Amino acid sequence: GKKPRGLCGGSAEPCHLFTSWAEGYPAIISFIENQTEVFYLEPRFFHLQSPSFAYGDRIPTKHTCDSSDYSPEIRWSGVPNKAMSLALIVDDPDAPTILPWVHWVVYNMPSSLAGLPERSTAINYPEEALSGMNDFGSNGYGGPCPPSGTHRYVFKLYALDSVLPDLLNPTKADLVEAMEGHIIAETVLIGTYSYP
Asked: What is the pTM of this model?
């Protein structure tokens, strides 16, 4: 976006203005009376990543059924200002099933949230967040467990313009239906895994 009209203009207070970088994006940084304001010169792209694996890389075994089977840490940035909540769906489009195999469903995460820690469960989700059913028949995260070959695991994060009602342990299909018409942005992270 453009520099906001009137920034530092007409102010009797000491003002220092310079161009820098903030969160990886070019920005104008304004200091007025020890108060810092950041005005981005380019859109902050909605972005999802994990410290455990890069996009397209192998997911560590500890996050799969071949080991401890706990969720990886994931982080995101650039959540749209209009977002009221976030939802996460993780599935395997390479599973030998008609539909992708669902590994993780979480919704109503606050838009201010910047990620989920490793070993996330319904017990340590943010208070507002709710989880749904995976295709293993349990509530929460179920890690990669391919029967053969290399599979892709697609982490999809959605920014919604509303907070959803309690869907009572929804499946992926239930959540997708509830999100219809409310998605304002989405971002994807893909990891892979094959039997060791």
From this structure: 0.78
